[in-house]
Amino acid sequence: MPDSVQDDLFADASPPERQPAPGTAASRLAPGQADAKPAPKTAAKSGGVALAPSALQLAELAAQLPAGLRMGVSTWSYPGWDGLVWDGAYDASVLSKKGLTAYHQHPLLRTVCVDRTFWRPLTASQYAAFAAQVDADFRFVVKCPAGVTDAQVRSEDGKPRQSNPAFLDPRLAVEHFVEPTLEGLGEKLGVLVFQLSPLPWSWLSRPGALLDKLGVMLAAVRQALAARPQVIVAVEVRDPELLGPALAATLKAHAATFCLGLHGKMPPIEQQLPMLRALWPGPLVCRWNLNRIFGAYGYADAQKKHEPFNEIRSEDLHTRALLARTIQGITGAGQPAFVTISNDAEGCAPRSIALLAQALAQSGPA
């Protein structure tokens, strides 16, 4: 990609666009599914899960997207996607176990973020069960357990109780995360995400020690991935103080990238893009988790507003437009892009992905 295009890609964004009111036509409709209506309440299905026929209308749109782009949701077990992804009303437990058989057939959904691993490590056999439900071209984004990436041991309500002696432990990262994902997912493993939870002052006041420790772990992870160099290693942070040249240098030294984490705890997307410039050339890994209007601790409020997650209720045109521009620039230079979106970003992850795809198709080649 020419320098001028790269500079434009990572330039400061224009002021945010005014958001349409929730419930307006612009906030509800997704391309190819403009007429899709929430299905009437019916008894939950319990058998195999099938793709909603309306999703096939998005195949033409999918064909216009960059070949190196993979978009998907963050967790897939939502009954409210009846008519958008699922062909009927299914219980969440059924979707959790069997939903990927339908999900991976959706034209726009070429990846998925496995979030549950953040709370509890999964076994190789559990990963293999996921892999068996998708085709050979599908790729998974998987989060490292918090037991490795959180500097504090927390209570059930999330409050810190004590320091975590296993924080960024390279042996645990490899044995409890990297090796099981490799064994279970095989060639279908796309990205390993190491999300550092908000750090206590004892670490933030010593950034050099923190980054040295992070570097040791990343070196061990890369060594474990020696036979799979195509797997992307991404680090996501929840403390804006860490954004800067030192973190970029640590990531670059260990063939890792920075994960754009879009939510209230971090600056908006335009203030995180300089990290990608510092790591250029490289892939894009983005997790759009929470609309900034809900603040840093607004997940409960977002869930309350967005349930049952079948409509766009908190449209964010500014983030979507800048994310589309970023995707175009990075994939246009031949780099891969993994973008996963949560229901809490705008209200309905599948509709957000369809709208992002429409923005990409309308903007044309980078």
Summarize the structure.
The protein has 366 residues and is of the alpha/beta class. It contains 16 helices and ten strands. Helix 8 packs parallel to helix 10.
Separate helix tally: 16
Order of helices and strands: HHHEHHEHEHEEHEHHEHEHEHHEHH
Anisotropy-based shape: globular
Strand order of the largest sheet: 1-2-3-6-7-8-9-10
Oligomer: single chain
Which blocks of ≥5 consecutive residues have pLDDT under 50? Answer: 1-32, 34-43
User: Beta-strand percentage?
Assistant: 5-15%
E-strand count: 10
- Structural class of the helix and strand makeup? alpha/beta
Average predicted confidence as pLDDT = 89
What percentage of residues falls in helices of 4 or more residues? Answer: 25-40%
Biggest sheet overview? 8 strands, parallel, barrel
Q: What's the alpha carbon Rg, rounded to whole Å?
A: 20 Å
Cα-to-Cα separation, first versus last residue: 9 Å
Q: Would you mind describing this structure in some detail?
A:
It is built from 16 helices and ten strands. An eight-stranded parallel beta barrel has the order 1-2-3-6-7-8-9-10, surrounded by six helices. Residues 1-32 and 34-43 have low confidence and may be disordered. Helix content is 38%, strand content 14%. Helix 14 (317-332) packs across helix 16 (349-363). The chain has helices at residues 3-9, 25-28, 59-62, 92-98, 100-103, 124-131, 146-149, 170-185, 201-204, 207-224, 245-253, 269-278, 299-306, 317-332, 343-346, 349-363, and strands spanning 69-74, 111-114, 139-143, 152-154, 160-163, 189-196, 232-237, 257-262, 284-288, 337-341. The chain has 366 residues and is α/β, with parallel strands linked by helices. Helix 12 (269-278) links the parallel strand 8 and strand 9.
